[in-house]
Design goal:
The structure is a single chain. Helix 2 runs antiparallel to helix 3. The chain has a five-stranded mixed sheet with strand order 2-3-1-4-5, covered by helices on one side. It starts with 12 loop residues before the first helix and ends in a 22-residue tail after the last helix. The chain is built from six helices and five strands; from the N terminus they run ααααβαββββα. The longest helix is centred in the last third of the chain and has 20 residues. It folds into two domains: about 60 residues, Arc Repressor Mutant, subunit A; about 90 residues, Glutaredoxin, CATH 3.40.30.10. It is an alpha+beta fold. About 40% of the residues lie in helices and about 10% in strands. Bound molecules: FE2/S2 (inorganic) cluster (FES). FE2/S2 (inorganic) cluster binds next to helix 5.
Length: about 200
């Protein structure tokens, strides 16, 4: 199925091909079962599930845009607003909270100077609360850009992670590989290439 005309294409040819491949995994009348995968593909490329992404996927899946938005807004892995280059999703569910998760949250907020749901002024970090990440025994835990899991995060480990990500961002800036819009949808604030 090809709905987008060349002049209105929002995503790359590769992204459309991936979405089409996901859709072929289901009978045509069940193609909406591929919607979550399609949202992930689009988010990896655009950085967030923007209104344009929602409307584009609604066309592809022949659904009302609100039906696509309902899926995107249900799962915390999807960014319904622009996020920084690194989205840090810290688990704040009870088992983690009882094992220094609350302490980790306070440390991150202080270190980054932001609260949950906020992005640092330099566009590098967005801090969000996460539901259980399935790694309760390793608390405190967080996901970087939905894909990189970090565990046993005491204050020293959190500081090391922030320093590591800052260095990574500076490295790609120096290499000239951060010119795309990335997670924020803002020019010059790039994604890290492993999606989010
Ligand atoms: S409660 Fe935090 S990973 Fe399960």
């Amino acid at each position: 199925m090809t709905v987008a005309s060349p002049e209105t294409r929002l995503l790359s040819d590769q992204a459309y091909a991936l979405i089409e491949r996901e859709m072929t995994k289901f009978p045509p009348e069940r193609k909406r079962s591929a919607l979550i995968a399609a949202l992930a593909i689009a988010q990896d490329e655009i950085g967030w599930t923007s209104r344009e992404v929602i409307e584009e996927l609604a066309r592809w899946f022949e659904l009302p845009p609100i039906a696509v938005y309902e899926v995107a807004s249900f799962y915390t892995l999807f960014n319904t607003r622009p996020v920084g280059r690194y989205k840090l999703s810290l688990c704040t569910n009870l088992p983690c909270a009882l094992h220094d998760g609350t302490k980790a949250a306070e440390h991150l907020k202080q270190r980054l100077g932001i609260g949950f749901g906020e992005t640092t002024p330099d566009g590098l970090f967005t801090l969000v609360e996460s539901e259980c990440l399935g790694s309760c025994g390793d608390a405190p835990v967080l996901l970087v850009n939905n894909k990189r899991m970090r565990s046993f995060l005491d204050n020293a480990a959190l500081d090391a992670l922030i320093d590591e990500l800052r260095a990574e961002a500076q490295g790609s800036a120096a290499a000239g590989t951060d010119g795309h819009s990335g997670a924020t949808g803002q020019p010059g604030v790039a994604g890290d290439g492993d999606g989010r």
